[in-house]
Amino acid sequence: MPDQQNRGVGPGSKLGSPAPISVTTVDYHGWAGSYLISNGRVEAVVVPSIGRVMQFRLAGEDQGVFWVNRLLDGKLPDAASSEWGNFGGDKSWPAPQGDWEKVTGREWPPPGSFDASRVDAVAGRDEITLKTMVDPGYGIQIVRRIKLAPALPMMTIRTGYHKLIGDPITVAVWVITQLPEPQRVFALLPRESQLADAFHQLAGPAPKELKIDGRLLSLARDPRDFSKIGTRGSSLLWMDNDYVLRIDASHAAGDHPNDDSRTEVYTNPDPLAYVELETVGPLRTLSVGDRIESTNTYTLARRSTQIEVAEARKAFAL
C-alpha cells in the first residue's frame, strides 16, 4: 500500500486550519509494513504483522505511552504455541475469558485468531482498518478502525465483532491496552457508585495503595504480585511523571462480564513492569450475520502538575 495523505481536512491553505492527517509506512522495531498515522499533534503506530496498535505518542516524539515488550522486537506470533506472545500495545480478546476453554479447547493463551495472527490492513486517507481471519471456535472476525481526530490529541479505535460462521455464541468486546510503569492509575466511578460496590476484586490480592476519593478510585503497580479489579465506570486514566492518557469507552446498556465490570485494571509484577487498562462491552448473543461494536477514545496530554489527584480531576473535568 503506498503512503497516503488526507489533504481534504478543512481549508488546508488557510492560517489556523488543522494539519492534514497522514498515513505512512514504516519499519517499527523490526516489523516491516507497519503504519504511522499522524494528525500533527499525536501519532499512532499500527503493526499488522502482529495485529496490534503498538504505540500512541505526541507527534514527533520517540517516547510513547503504550508498553512495548522490546524482548520480542521483530518476532511474529504463533497461534499454535502454548506460550503467549506478550508483545504489548492495544488489542482485543473475546470476553468472558472463562469461556475460552469451552469454545477453543484451551483456557490460555488467548484464541489465536484474536491475538496471535497477522491481520489484513487497509490504509485509508485518514484511518487504518485491520481485519483478522475468522476464528474457528467463535466464528467471529474482528474489524478494528484506528482514526485520529483532526487537530486534537485524540485517537479512536472502533472494534467490531462480526459473526460469520457457526452456532450462536454469547460474547462481549474486550479491549486491552498495555501501558508502562505508572505513577498512578485512576478509574472514574459512576455518580451513583457506593463505597461498598466501588470495585470488584477479580484476581490476585487487593491493589497496592488503593484509594477512593469521591468518584476517583486510584492504585499503583505492585512489583511483587499481580492484581486485577473491575469497576462499573467507563473512563480510565494512566499517568507517569510526564504524560497523562485517558481512555473512554462507549457506553452500552446490558449485562457485562466479571461482576458487571465496564472497565478493568490489571497490574503485572516484575520483571515486566506494565499495567493493563481494559474496557468491556455488554454481553450479546450473536448469530451468523450479527455484529457488535465498541469504541475506545484515547486522549493524550503532558502532565500539568505533579499533584496526582489534581491532574486526575483536570483530566476528568471534575
Q: How would you sum up this structure, described in words?
A:
The chain has one domain: Beta-galactosidase, Chain A, domain 5 (Distorted Sandwich). Residues 1-15 have low confidence and may be disordered. Strand 19 and strand 20 (274-280) form a beta hairpin. The protein is built from 4 helices and 22 strands. It has helices at 100-104, 112-115, 257-260, 308-315; strands at residues 4-6, 21-28, 31-38, 42-47, 52-58, 90-95, 120-123, 127-131, 140-148, 154-163, 169-180, 184-188, 200-203, 208-213, 216-220, 227-231, 235-239, 243-249, 263-267, 274-280, 284-286, 291-302. By secondary structure, the chain is mainly β. 7% of the residues lie in helices and 45% in strands.
CATH architecture: Distorted Sandwich
Give the end-to-end Cα distance, rounded to a whole number of Å. 44 Å
In the CATH scheme, what's the topology name?
Answer: Beta-galactosidase, Chain A, domain 5
Number of domains: 1
- Count of individual beta strands: 22
Shape: globular
Q: What percentage of the residues does DSSP assign to strands (E)?
A: 35-45%
Query: What structural class should be given to the helix and strand makeup?
Result: mainly beta
Mean pLDDT: 92
**Could you state the order of secondary-structure elements as H and E?**
EEEEEEHHEEEEEEEEEEEEHEEEEH
Percent helix, as a range, is under 10%
Task: Give the helix tally.
Answer: 4
Biggest pleated-sheet summary: 10 strands, antiparallel
Specify the CATH class.
Mainly Beta
Return Rg in Å: 19 Å
Could you list the spans in which at least 5 consecutive residues all have pLDDT below 50? 1-15
Strand order of the largest sheet: 7-8-9-10-22-18-17-12-15-14
